[in-house]
Amino acid sequence: MATKEKGSIGTAGSDIGITAKKENNFSEWYTQVISKSELIDYSSVSGSYIIKPAAFNIWESIQQYLNLRIKKLGVSNAYFPMLIPESLLKKEAKHIAGFSPEVAWVTEAGNSKLNERLAIRPTSETIMYEAYSRWIRSYKDLPLKLNQFNNVVRWEFNNPIPFLRSREFLWQEGHTAFATKEEADKEVIDILNIYAEVYEKLLAIPVFKGKKTESEKFAGADYTTSIETFLPNGKGIQCATSHSLGQNFSKSFNINFLDKDEKTKYVWQNSWGLSTRSIGITIMQHSDNKGAIIPPRVAKNKLVIIPIYFEEKEKNKVLSACKKLFIQLEEFNPILDDREGYTPGWKFNNWELKGIPLRIEIGPKDIKSSQAILARRDTQEKQAVKLSQLKKKIPELLENIQSNLYKKAAKIIKDNTVEASSLNQLVKAIKDKKLIKAGWCGKESCESIIKDKAEGAKILNIPFKKHKISDCPACNKKALHPVLIAKSY
Ligand code: 86X
C-alpha cells in the first residue's frame, strides 16, 4: 500500500541525493553523481572502475553510431591480442618514447617466468602493424581499414578520475593503411568529423576541431588532429584524436607494397580513437545538483511513468492507466515505477538522480480529464498533455531536451571564453577558469612559457575554425596560428 506514511521510509534524504554543489565543489559533486546515479562503482584496484549498465548503455549507443559511420567508410571490425611481446612493442622507438612508465607487464604464468615479458596493450599499433606487414603485398591489398572496440591499460600516475583517467579503459582504435598520402589525409578529417558528430549529435557536447601543436601531437605521428571541449569547472579536455602516421610505422614495421607502377612503396597510415572518457565528459557537462542528466539520444529509458495515488480505492484505476501507457509507449523503453512503499516525491527524486529525460505522472484527476503530466529532467518544466497526444508530444520533447542540452553547454562555453593578447591577461583568464582564444607565434619556447606562467594551462589545439588573433601573448611578436588555451585534464 503506497500511503504517505509508508512512503516516508524512502524520503530522498541527504544519504541518497547529491549533497555537493556543482558550482562550489565540482569534483565531489562529480563523484557523487556517478556513484549515486549508479553509473560507476569502484573496484579494489585504484584507477579501475566498474562501468554499470546505465553507463555502459551510453557506450553502446556510441558504438552503434560509430560502427554505422565507419563501416560506411569501408572500415571492418577485428580483434587483436591484448598481450604484446616486448620486442614488438619497442620496435618503433618514437612510439614508446615517454610512455614506457605506463606499460603494465605480464612476467609470469603460474610458477614459471616467461622467456619474454608481455605488455598488456596500451594501444595496438605494434601488434596490428606486425600483421599488416605480412598482409599487405600489393596495391590490391589496399586500403586496409580495421577497427577494434577493446580495452587498454595505461598505468597512469596522475590521480585517477572515473571515465576521464582510468588505468583500464574502453575505446575504439582504428588503424588504416593507404597507397597514397592524399587518401590518408582525407580520412584523418573524415574520422575527425565523425567524432565531432558523436559528441555534438549524440552527446550534445559542442567541440572544437583542430590540429595539435608539435609538442602535443602523438610522437609516432606526422600530425595529430583532435576535438576538444571545455567543462563547467573551467577545464579543457581532449575528446578524441585522429592521427596521420605518415610512413613512420610503415618504415619501422616494413609495411610496403608493390604499386601499379611496379615500384615498392611504404604505405601511408592513420590511427584514431575515441574512448569511454566521452561518458565522463557528458555527465560533467550536463548534469546538475539533482543528479545525472543523460542526453535523450543515448538514454536507454527515455521516460519513467509514475502512478500518483494516495488512497487505496484509487490504486487500481491509476495503475491500470499506467500499465496501458507503459505498453503504448513501448518504443521509448519506459520504466513503470509501480513500487509500493515509496512516495511519488521520492520516486521523482530518484529518477531525476538517474537522469531519465522525461517523467510522466498520472493521478485520478488526470485520468478524469484524459491527460498526463509530462515533466522534463533538464528544465524541470511540467505540462499537461492529452493522452491521445502523448505519442506525438514525447518525441518532440525529447528532441527539444537534446537540443536544449547542446545550447546550454554551448552557452556555458561561450560565456567562459575570453581573448588574451598579453601574458598578464592570459594568467588572469586562467585564474578565472576561462577558455582562451589567442594567437601563437608557433615557437615551442612560447608554448612552454604559457604553461609555466599560467598554472600549467596548455594549447588545446589550433582550431580549424579560425578566430581573430592578436600578437602571441608570450613574446608579443606576430601570431601565426589561432589557438585555444585552457587548463586541462
Ligand atoms: C598514443 C595513439 C593512437 C590508436 C591514438 O591516439 C588513437 C588510437 N592509438 C596512442 N599512445 C601511445 O602510443 C602509447 C604507447 C604506450 Cl607504450 C603507452 F604505454 C601509452 C600510450 N599512450 C598513448
What is the element layout, followed by pairings?
Elements: H1 4-7, H2 26-36, E1 40-42, E2 49-51, H3 53-72, E3 76-77, E4 83-85, H4 86-89, H5 93-96, E5 104-109, E6 112-120, H6 125-135, E7 144-153, E8 168-178, H7 181-202, E9 208-211, E10 223-230, E11 235-246, H8 248-252, E12 256-258, E13 264-266, E14 268-275, H9 277-286, E15 303-307, H10 312-328, E16 335-336, H11 344-354, E17 358-362, H12 364-368, E18 371-376, E19 382-386, H13 390-415, E20 417-419, H14 423-431, E21 435-440, H15 444-453, E22 458-463, E23 481-488
Parallel strand pairs: 3-7, 11-23, 15-16, 15-17, 20-21
Antiparallel strand pairs: 1-2, 4-6, 5-6, 7-8, 8-14, 9-10, 9-22, 10-11, 11-14, 12-13, 17-18, 18-19, 21-23, 22-23
Helix pairs in contact: 3-7
The site of ligand 86X has 16 residues, from helix 5, strand 11 and strand 14.
Describe the structure.
- The structure is a single chain.
- By secondary structure, this protein is α+β, with helices and mostly antiparallel strands.
- It contains 15 helices and 23 strands.
- The protein has helices at 4-7, 26-36, 53-72, 86-89, 93-96, 125-135, 181-202, 248-252, 277-286, 312-328, 344-354, 364-368, 390-415, 423-431, 444-453, and strands at 40-42, 49-51, 76-77, 83-85, 104-109, 112-120, 144-153, 168-178, 208-211, 223-230, 235-246, 256-258, 264-266, 268-275, 303-307, 335-336, 358-362, 371-376, 382-386, 417-419, 435-440, 458-463, 481-488.
- It has a five-stranded mixed barrel. A five-stranded mixed β-sheet has the order 16-15-17-18-19, with helices on both faces.
- Helix 3 (53-72) runs antiparallel to helix 7.
- The longest helix is centred in the last third of the chain and has 26 residues, at 390-415.
- It is globular, with a radius of gyration of 26 Å.
- The two termini are 49 Å apart.
- Ligand 86X binds next to helix 5, strand 11 and strand 14.
